[in-house]
Amino acid sequence: QVQLVESGGGPVQAGGSLRLSCSASGSIFSFAAMGWYRQAPGKQRELVAAITSGDSTRYADFVEGRFTISRDNAANTMTLQMNSLKPEDTGVYLCFADTGQWLRRTWGQGTQVTISL
Predict the structure, then answer these.
(1) pLDDT tens digit sequence for 37-86
(2) What pLDDT score was predicted for residue 77?
(3) Three-state helix/strand/coil letters over 71-93
(4) Is-contact 14 117, C-beta < 8 A?
(5) What are phi and psi of 63, to 5 degrees?
(6) Neighbours of 87 (CB within 10 A)
(7) Residue 84 near residue 69 (C-beta atoms within 8 A)
(8) Which residues touch 42 (CB under 8 Å, ≥6 apart)?
(9) How many CB atoms lie within 10 A of CB 108?
(10) Contact 69, 51 (CB under 8 A)
C-alpha cells in the first residue's frame, strides 16, 4: 500500500513563501493524480491543487496564481510551491494520491501551515 509523507510546513509571515513536499513510498509514475487539500479549524476540507499523470493541473479559485504544483516521477515526490501567503491560507495541508485501477485514494498525515500578519 502506498504511503505518503508531507513536509515543508511551518509558521511564516504574510507575504512569505513555503514549499510543501509529498514523498511516496513507491513509484508515482503510474499514479493517476496527486494533490493537496487543506483543512482550517472549523471549516471543511477543501481542494487546493491537483496534478494528473499527464501533468494537467487544477487549482482552487482562491489560489489566484500564487501556488504551483508539480511532480517529480524520478524522485517519487510532488511539491506545492506557495507564494504570497495570506493568513487565510492557514491550515493543515494534506497530500493525496489516486492509484490503481479503481483510483483508490491514499492520504498523508498532513503538515501544518500557519500564516501570521
Answers:
(1) 999 989 999 999 999 999 999 999 999 999 999 999 999 999 999 999 99
(2) 96
(3) EECCCCEEEEEECCCCHHHCEEE
(4) yes
(5) -65, -40
(6) 11
(7) no
(8) none
(9) 21
(10) yes
Cell, residue 105: 485514494
Percent of the chain with pLDDT over 90: 91
44/36 Cα distance (integer angstroms): 14
C-alpha cell read off for 50: 491537483
Residue type, 67: F
Integer-rounded Cα radius of gyration of the chain:
14
Q: Is-contact 72 31, C-beta < 8 A? A: no
Question: Do residues 53 and 67 lie in contact, with contact meaning Cβ atoms separated by under 8 Å?
Answer: no
Taking alpha carbons only, the member of 82, 68, 84, 83 closest to residue 111 is: 82
Site of grid cell 489560489: 63
Residue 1, amino acid: Q
Q: Which three cell numbers stand for residue 18?
A: 513555503
Q: For position 59, what pLDDT does the model report?
A: 98
Alpha carbons 69 and 11: distance in angstroms, whole number: 20
